[in-house]
Amino acid sequence: MPELTITPLGYAMGAAVTGLDLRRPLDDLTRRRLYDAWLKHVVLVFPGQPLTPEEHIAFSANFGALDDHDSQAPETLLEGHREILVVTNKHRLGKPSGTRNTGRNWHTDLSYTMRPAKGSLLLCQEKPPVGGDTMWANLTMAYETLSPKMQAILDGLEAVHDVTLVKGIGARDPAIVQAMKQRNPAVVHPMVRVHPDTGRKSLLAGERVSHILGFSEEESTALLDFLNAHATAPEFVYRHRWSVGDIVLWDNRCTCHVALPDFDQTQPRLMLRCSLQGESVGRLAEAAPAATREQMIQTVASLS
Ligand code: OGA
Ligand code: MN
């Protein structure tokens, strides 16, 4: 058996792990080495691991309990294995797949639920000849490179995450979208998270955030646009060019990611995802939307 080797792939994050057969159970020492490598490199790539669904689930469980995907439309889960979400542009059960555009804007998995995922393990089963890449942004770096004054402002802020901002959701079957909304009412999360394992702070923003609590709509949009542009700058990003049989494990507690539409959509792409259950940190958002600048001006005018 070759030796377990961890090779860094990018400056911001990413490392390839070779010398392991993931079909076999991990011993305690190997599990600990992988977990430490995960914390250090944030995104781990395991090439050449075409696992069966059972093996994928068993390997994922080394990193935490699995999410049961209660938040997802049932028809997007693998038959007989609800721990696996099927991300594909191939027809499913004779219909266009509901996940054909999954992940097309910068997001942190399941941030629109009370329990954003701890991590995810995505296995590439089929891919187009070119493209279909995924990018991750390191949100610890993003936070740590903000000025102390901006960090202090963000430390006290919360934002609303909304499933209806999943890009392309409008193209899905309206009944399924309605059920997704009912299952996932808008939730509030802090804009700065403390990583439970490393103690480091990271920014939680992304393109599924509707607004910052207490800010006017315009203030919120301006700050979110700045933060999202800052966080996803190329120097904080690892871009993965998939090969069939790659498994990528990412730490969802300190990253966001995007699935690029950089491929010929007539070519099949099929990815299987296990999600690690996160801590329950959110709370339900109140229905009130952010006030607009115009409304603020009118409120002040009526007082004076
Ligand atoms: C996901 C996701 C990215 C991709 O499964 O969480 O965002 O490239 N997928 O398919
Ligand atoms: Mn995702």
From TrEMBL:
<keyword id="KW-0560">Oxidoreductase</keyword>
<protein>
    <submittedName>
        <fullName>TauD/TfdA family dioxygenase</fullName>
    </submittedName>
</protein>
<dbReference type="InterPro" id="IPR051323">
    <property type="entry name" value="AtsK-like"/>
</dbReference>
<dbReference type="InterPro" id="IPR003819">
    <property type="entry name" value="TauD/TfdA-like"/>
</dbReference>
<keyword id="KW-0479">Metal-binding</keyword>
<dbReference type="Pfam" id="PF02668">
    <property type="entry name" value="TauD"/>
</dbReference>
<feature type="domain" description="TauD/TfdA-like">
    <location>
        <begin position="6"/>
        <end position="274"/>
    </location>
</feature>
<dbReference type="InterPro" id="IPR042098">
    <property type="entry name" value="TauD-like_sf"/>
</dbReference>
<comment type="similarity">
    <text>Belongs to the TfdA dioxygenase family.</text>
</comment>
<keyword id="KW-0223">Dioxygenase</keyword>
<dbReference type="GO" id="GO:0051213">
    <property type="term" value="F:dioxygenase activity"/>
</dbReference>
<keyword id="KW-0408">Iron</keyword>
